[in-house]
Amino acid sequence: MSLLAGYPAGAQVAQNDQQHMNRVVPRAGAPASFADLTEQLQPAVVNIATRQRVTVNNNNPFAGTPFADMFGGGGRPTTREAQSLGSGFIVSASGYVVTNNHVITAEGRGEVEEITVTMPDGTEYPAELVGRDAASDLAVLKITRDKDFPFVNFGDSSQARVGDWVIAIGNPFGLGGTVTSGIVSAVYRNTKQGGAYDRYIQTDASINRGNSGGPLFDMEGNVIGINNAIFSPSGGSVGIGFAIPAEIASPIVDKLIKGEAIERGYLGVRIQPVTEDVAEALGIPENHGEFIQSVQPGEAAEKAGVQAGDVVLKVNGEDVTPEQSLSYLIANIEPGTTVPIELIRNGKTRNVKVTVGKRPSEDELAQQTFDPDGDVQNDPAQQAGEGILEDTLGIRAINLTPQIARQLGVKEDTTGVVVTAVDPNADAGRKGLQRGDLILTANYSRVSNLDELETVVKSAKAEGREAVLLRVQRRGRPAQYVPIRIR
């Protein structure tokens, strides 16, 4: 049973003084006003601000010339202070606060130095990060004072229906407590962004930047969703907002509060929906099942005999549909559990038994899906790189995995590091290194990971050398040696 269940709906206070808050719920149907309900709930909705230290590249247009040092930094990365704003809500009298992970996560290559929670009356509290889960985009904070906090409870989002009234309370654009109303536009909306938790409540209640992490309430004052994202060609609200359903969020929040690890099931496959064209080609119904594009070596799917080209129809007896994706079904199965999977191969239905594996972390998954031609700024592999080579070689890189090796067209047992970004003002940029290049050796020493490459660079600097000789391989070309000057 949820730790957060079992309390009366609405913002509550501990009943130590035997004083009870009146439960105010608008009449059924279209409410004459949301004011009474809002007055009861708003004390438990908070604003969240972070102070961050962010590393940025100082692109010096005079790098490499006698004028480089006149402008400071010489093109090397510098740091700046940044801030972020979001929303959250208190779920216990002791001060546990729920919000989105992205609200309290540093942008780019930054570090969060301080988190502040502001109550509706303007009182500020320093917040401690209790736990966070990147996959579901949830986080729990803790604030403390000498008396109990007002709090709200999770409701049963599985009972939400299209057309139900909802209200959202949050901190859009840093304006403070703001209330908007609307209806449930869709339940279990798949946004086609992929991932194990691409399954949202859609609402037309106005949601904007800063509403992230705030609650979406039903008319009984229960949190049925956590406002998470919007669809907007303009950047503002166009009436299409998405909230993480409470039935997904509540168990994860419970585990984060208890300090328990969040473990999810994993198959090790790359999938795509069964589109009209795929369905026509295979002679199967559209939007039923998901198509297996590739299978990762050594993972659960391969061990069970699942193959690229299969279409998975059911997992443990449950249909795979756009609203209930393969990723979602598998993620919610405990690792180590053996389940039946029904699939189609060569027009014939087959059943296999799969012992579900453990889903890697989001950073590990990011490093498995490297697009050599992708957008560097928005690339998760770019963010996953440790950046230890920026100050020395002017590059960012990640370790080569068998999955990335396949994407680069090299053998899966190849060792090396993959360049994810290059500073154009560094010697590496001037020598033509680019995203997707594979570094095999440094000063004739084979490098199988970032640490080994940095060790070679440090040794070269200690010996007074001003450059290292890298052996670099680019897709479709033979490997070649390139001397790169050390910064």
UniProtKB/TrEMBL annotation:
Keywords of the record: Hydrolase, Periplasm, Protease, Repeat, Serine protease, Signal, Stress response
Domain of life: Bacteria
Pfam families: PDZ_2, Trypsin_2
Catalytic reactions of this protein: Acts on substrates that are at least partially unfolded. The cleavage site P1 residue is normally between a pair of hydrophobic residues, such as Val-|-Val
Binding positions for substrate per the UniProt entry: H102, D137, G210, N211, S212
Residue ranges of every copy of the PDZ domain listed in the record: 256-329, 397-456
Entry keyword annotation includes Ribosomal protein: no
EC primary class: hydrolase
UniProt keyword Hydrolase present: yes
EC id: 3.4.21.107
Active site: H102, D137, S212
Biological processes per GO annotation: proteolysis
Subcellular location: Periplasm
Gene Ontology MF terms: serine-type endopeptidase activity
Family note: Belongs to the peptidase S1C family.
PANTHER family: PERIPLASMIC SERINE ENDOPROTEASE DEGP-LIKE-RELATED, SERINE PROTEASE FAMILY S1C HTRA-RELATED
UniProt-recorded name of the protein: Probable periplasmic serine endoprotease DegP-like
Originating species: Altericroceibacterium endophyticum
UniProt lineage: Bacteria, Pseudomonadati, Pseudomonadota, Alphaproteobacteria, Sphingomonadales
